[in-house]
Amino acid sequence: MTSPLTTPCSITALSASDLSKAIHSKAYSCVEVMQAYLKRIAKVNPTYNAIISLRGESELLTEAKLHDEMLAAGNSKGWLHGIPQAIKDLSPAAGIYTVYGSPLMTKNVPLEDGLMVQRMKAAGAIIIGKTNVPEFGLGSHSFNTVFGATKNAFDMTKTAGGSSGGSAVALAQHLLPVADGSDFMGSLRNPAGWNNIYGMRPSQGRVPMWPATEVWVSSLGTEGPMGRTVEDVARLMETQSGFDARCPISISESFDLEHALKPMTGAEVKNVKVLWLGDLGGYLPMEDGISNICELALQGISSKGCKVEAWESQSQLGFQPERIWKAWLVWRQALVGARLAPFVAMKNGREQIKVEALYEYDASLSLTGEAFMNASVVRSSFYQAMVKLLESFDAIALPTAQVWPFDVNMRYPTEIVTTKGTVQMDTYHRWMEATIYATFAGLPCISVPAGFGANGLPMGIQLMGKPQGDADLLRLAVLFPVIPA
Fold it and tell me: From the CB of residue 350, how many other CB atoms can be counted at a distance below 10 Å?
């Protein structure tokens, strides 16, 4: 059952950047903006279940009024001044339930904001609630036993993806103007691609995460921006990013917003080279039509002068995909297992944790230090191979997902039906393998809308950029054709 987007009002139709301009020019008051978004949430959210733990209307309107009074006195906090925001339910927001989609955490109300939320508030955002996630953020399907499932913005019978599924649908359905997400195994990119929006996984260390019980290897996962336009993604990236001494691998160099928003000249465009990996020569099983949609999107930038080259051979890559997958599993199980350990130890904890999470935890128990270090060696070799490859290309492209959005009542795909046959999945997340390369190499990666398939469902294309080349990647993303909803 398809679900075309309901028409937003004049306020909620605006991009975050344009909304910011309208607020600061007094075209709309912060109260009017808050009222418009709360009205739309009341109308649309019950169908899609994107926003959860919504704060009370009177309380939010009081905050909006205070923001109007600040502007009247000539004071603005920043570009997000008075703009409603709902925080992904994996990040702490003071005074708002932060549940992680777990029945073990239904009474958890943080006393302090996480670093990213602090920065968004400092830029003027008004936090209205949270966005839905899968339990503990595991799996690209935002369902849990506490809040239920978030439905795809373009087909209510399909998944929204995850773990930033609530954020993606809130954007696509104009329940938020811009949104935060986070990404470990495609958690920003899959839902962005499946809901026709942009999702940016920053370079490792670009957006530091705090609080954190472990600040070294756990930074494989990262928070990041999502939006309906590249400009909005870039502006939120600037707000979220910046060095923090508590996060030792955080990048000290400031994010260059001016450069990120600077259009490429004709000469620059003609010098852009993109490597299209497709399905890695048949290694990555994909449902029919996904590669075709992405190739059409690449034709859009080719028509503007960019050079797009298709993957030719294993030797060109400089790494063996199966070897990367096995090393990735070790890292994922080590990090996820350690994160889940306190919850498993809670009274009746194991009985209240989903089986996919227990799979990660149980696998982590048999890992050795030697196995982890061997996997780290593989990861280091893979990073060098990617750096070498990016000496010849400005970006490396892959589909954001290997399947179309699947039935919302499924837990995860157990097989992928390709044009050559059916491939069984050996883990609950093997169908997301295409997303691990940017994560494992710590590279910036943006999901760009690629188009809609014959099934009426959206798909995205992910672009991996050079190390810490976030701004250049955003400039490239602008060149892709805008896909109307």
Answer: 14
Helix ranges restricted to H, 278-320: 290-302, 314-317
How many residues does the structure list for the chain? 485
The pTM for the full model equals 0.98
User: Could you tell me the two tokens for 79?
Assistant: 């570009």
Residue 316 predicted with pLDDT over 90? no
Separation of alpha carbons 134 and 431, rounded Å: 17
pLDDT (tens digit per residue) in 171-225: 999 999 999 999 999 999 999 999 999 999 999 999 999 999 999 999 999 999 9
- E-strand stretches of 243-367: 273-276, 307-310
The dihedral over CA atoms of 427, 431, 434, 437, expressed in degrees to the nearest 10, equals -20
Residue in 1, 467, 484, 463 with CA at minimum distance from that of residue 233: 463
Q: What is the pLDDT of residues 220-255, one digit of tens each?
A: 999 999 999 999 999 999 999 999 999 999 999 999
Peptide bond into 380 cis (omega under 30): no
CA 181 to chain centre: 5
Place of tokens 């932060």: 98
Per the CB < 8 A criterion, the answer to whether 104 and 342 are in contact is no
Residue pair 241/207 in contact (Cβ under 8 Å)? The answer is yes
Whole-number Å distance between alpha carbons of 115 and 392 = 36
Give the containing element (helix H, strand E) for 230.
helix 230-240
Rounded distance between C-alpha atoms, residue 27 and residue 19, angstroms: 9
Contacts of 379 (CB under 8 A, 6+ apart): 327, 331, 440
Which residue is listed with tokens 């954001």? 400
Q: Which residues on adjacent β-strands are paired with residue 448?
A: 461
**Residue ranges of domains in the chain, CATH in brackets:** 16-260 (3.90.1300.10), 269-477 (3.90.1300.10)
Q: How far apart are CA 190 and CA 325, in angstroms?
A: 18
pLDDT in tens, 77-88: 999 999 999 999
